[in-house]
Amino acid sequence: MKFHVLTLFPELVMGGLGASITGRAIEKGVISVEAINIRDYSTDKHRHVDDAPYGGGAGMVMQPGPVVDAYEDLCARIFKASGKRPRVIYMTPQGRVFNQSIARELAREEDLVFLCGHYEGIDERALELICTDYLSVGDYVLTGGELPAMVMIDCISRLIPGVLNNEASAEEESFHDNLLEYPQYTRPESYRDMQVPQVLLSGHHKNIDEWRRKQSILRTLERRPDLLEEARFSKKEGKFLAGILRERLLQALPGEESCAEGKIPNDTGEA
Question: Which positions ≥6 away from 242 have C-beta within 8 Å?
Fold first, then answer.
């Protein structure tokens, strides 16, 4: 997997991705990351890459020439090696919000190009010429596209075989089956009178797996209930969630005699 980042700040990208798990993956040759300095493609003797916007307004806009030239130079190298043009992702709050599903889709590519804007953005003509995807990391504004690009590369990298020491980690952590990750514990067993759940000390793997799935469902319900609509459950887990929802309904309807006794019409146990 080869990541290519078109940026004005290559040292920021390489410094961030050169550490921890992505750094080790780069050293092993499982992935490669290169940061291409758009400023190297400026034809201005002062290496300017921006100018005032037509129509007026605050700030500066990145010029199309250096951006497109940097891309075409890169694309010529990639096409020579793979015979196809790569997907080009522009980081912008106007794009689709990046998520794990998009990460899995992008992880199937051989090459990915990330275009990082700055100032008031990039001349629209450059975007129309080279961009294939517009992605966002959230509804807020950052100084540039480098941090979002690094977030996406980190996420996508974890899905590449050989990046993680424990291959199961990529699927067992947050957002597996669209559920949040269960709580994690390590030594000591007791800390400030707070105990590790006994089931985790039992050595009974089936019970541990069942407990973890229930905790994932509960945590998702409490913190990200919006994810449950697309979550995948077994029939037993669906009944567990339905029971939790019925219990909350009972608590929200005090004084109802039939409810207080747990007698709810049409109790099918379906989520």
Answer: 268, 269, 270, 271
Condensed to tens digits (0 to 9), the pLDDT of residues 155-190 reads: 999 999 999 976 555 555 556 788 999 999 999 999
Query: How many CB atoms are closer than 10 A to CB 161?
Result: 10
Q: Which two tokens stand for residue 37?
A: 């300095």
* Segment 195-227, tens digit of pLDDT: 999 999 999 999 999 999 999 999 999 999 999
- 190-260 fold: Trp Operon Repressor; Chain A (1.10.1270)
> DSSP H helical segments within the chain, as ranges?
10-17, 20-28, 64-82, 100-106, 124-130, 146-157, 169-172, 198-201, 205-223, 235-252, 257-260
Q: What is the fold, at CATH topology level, of the domain defined by 2-157?
A: Alpha/beta knot (3.40.1280)
Residues 180 and 219: beta-carbon distance below 8 Å = yes
Q: Tell whether omega for the bond before 188 is within 30 degrees of 0, i.e. cis.
A: yes
Q: For tokens 């990145």, name the residue.
A: 62
Nearest to 153 by CA among 248, 38, 16, 8: 16
